[in-house]
Amino acid sequence: MGAIEEAERAGFASRLAGAARLVGRAARGVLDLALPPQCLACEKPVTQAGGLCVACWGALKPIERPYCERLGTPFPADFGPGLLSPAAIAKPPAFDRARAVARFDGTARELVHRLKYADGVHLAKPLGAMMARAGHELLGEGALLVPVPLHRGRLWSRRFNQSALLARSVARISGAELKVDAIERVKATRPQVGLTASQRADNLAGAFRVADAAVIAGRRIVLVDDVVTTGATVDRLARLLRRARAASVDVLTFAVVVKEA
Q1: How many Å apart are CA 39 and CA 57, to the nearest integer?
Q2: What is the pTM of this model?
């Protein structure tokens, strides 16, 4: 009798789970009718949640090979594997490799702005998924994700750090380790866009510190941010992490500003 009772209980549990799945699908169907899925960028109706409409997808400018192996910026043609851009040769960055999903233009710009300035925290999951795919070569065994920190004043006004949200999403998908508070921003800085190189350096001087060098030493660090504009911030952070004896420093972002030649 015991074996029969166990089988009956297992069968009942299986039927109950199946019914729950059916109810869940039905509830999602009703919800989709009442609140149709929207494009992540323009909010027009789409067939599947978490995606882009045809127009916004067409306006996204993904970065794929061939690109500079150091800066991750695209080449106009395939000149062979392992090549570096003139910018990377003329002024080698402090980090090893940078990878991004797309150019900071069109749809990518809209997505970043919605995430940062329109409380678009729901965007962190799909954008992080795109970043995990774009930066898969950076996310191997031993990688430690470190988001670019916000100053506490900026964090208080915005209520969240978009880089940390993206890093959490990438960590969940890739399985990479995450250390949100590895770096602290101890000085408020003004936006880097529009500043000269010397002004950017002065602006960032003393802005960051490593919270615990023992966490960084010997690790493969992957800095995570929403967008690289001038590159000065991630370069400064890479130098800081190298002084803390990081084994390597890579950069993973959703978008990057690409200067046309």
Answers
A1: 10
A2: 0.84
Contact 187, 206 (CB under 8 A): yes
Q: What is the DSSP secondary-structure string of 188-244? A: -----TT--HHHHHHHHTT-EEES-HHHHTT-EEEEEEEEESSSHHHHHHHHHHHHT
Amino acid, single-letter form, for residue 152: R
Could you report the per-residue pLDDT of 15-55, keeping only the tens digit for each? Answer: 555 544 554 454 444 444 557 899 999 999 998 888 999 99
Domain ranges, residue 112: 54-256
Report the first-to-last Cα separation within the chain, whole angstroms. Answer: 80
Number of domains into which the chain is organized: 1
CATH of the domain at 115: 3.40.50
Of the candidates 207, 206, 217, the one whose C-alpha atom is nearest the C-alpha of residue 241 is: 217
From start to end of the chain, where are the E strands?
A: 97-103, 143-147, 177-178, 183-185, 208-210, 220-228, 248-256
- Cβ neighbours of residue 152 closer than 8 Å, sequence gap 6 or more: 185
